[in-house]
Amino acid sequence: MESVLQSLLEVAANPSSEVSRWRQRTGGKVVGWLPIYVPEEIIHAAGALPVSLWGGRTEIVRADAHLQGFACSVVRAVLEYGLKGTYNMVDGFIFPSTCDHIQNTSDIWASLFPDRPKFDLVYPANRQSKAAVVYLEQLFADLEQWLEELTGQKVTSEKLRESVKIYNCYRALLADLFSLRSRKPESLSGPEMGQIVKSSLFLEKAEFNRHLSDLLPWLEHRKVKPAPKARLVLTGIMAEPQEILAILDELGGAIVADDLALGARILRAPVREELPLPAALVDRHLRLGPCSTLYDWRKGRGAHVQHLVAEHAADGVIFINMKFCEAEEFDYPVLKAELEEAGIPLLFLEVEQQMAAMGQIRTRLQAFLEVLGKGAGS
Ligand code: SF4
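YS: structure for the whole thing
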């Protein structure tokens, strides 16, 4: 099982090699999609490999000529990878209308790479409106048609149903992994947990599911670190750079639950298999949330995070803010006020994917654990 775990960590560390291997082995098309919500099942049913493009740790050299320095590090990294050829094995790109940064990057991408197939997945801002259903049905039908033209394969209802099953299984297995993280935080290091989730962004999902279902019983008996002194909930876009998770391990803190876009938000709202397709995919999109990138006047994130704290017996919350992410920055004051009122300690950490110096982050985490009464001398 150790070798299965290592193979997943290797995929997360070198996704391009894995994606190129898949392409050579199958002769299939690779479809890259930007965060956060894309009906991957349709891509899968079209016979393509969906890969999520969430930026990464690369020096920004070329992208700075096209994007302002105050664009978030995720889109700057995506553009940098595009310009330096890392995505050459990607046959088509999907840009959802997640935020201004992604929408603007989509326009810049079109001017830089006019010959590379691209689909703009422009979601309705108001998901509560009745028109949103009709609009989404048409949007997903257009996406399906674009994918069929790209791959040369028909998305039949049988294939779509099969893909939905695979993706629901993926969400259930991730839920089991996250449950293990809360029950037995000592079974995986913080970075290992992050890398397993990340590997799922690049592997064909049925293959990832096989690996994870093999690993889970073995992980129940694994122990790589002492029981944590502090149990924490992490909320934000993603837990990167992953050195933060290693520092937390060193300090005796453990993430026991998360509300991350690249984390537990993935497994929310499984597709209702009893509904007809593709309407069930529309139904899923309407049920997603709470998330800073999905408009909802009810602002349910504070209640959701409080629920996570109670359910997982957490001592405090870390809000990990991707610098210049306006969606998250608009959510923060509301969340802060609600957690303060509930008496839940909160730490705000600002990060960029490319940041190298971790000294300040370490000091702030150390101080937070001291405040919680869970520091080195406690
Ligand atoms: S981190 Fe925020 S600003 Fe950047 S791509 Fe994600 S949602 Fe958009």
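YS: worth flagging: Residues 15-151 form a domain with the Rossmann fold fold (CATH 3.40.50.11890).
IM: good catch. Also The chain has a mean pLDDT of 95.
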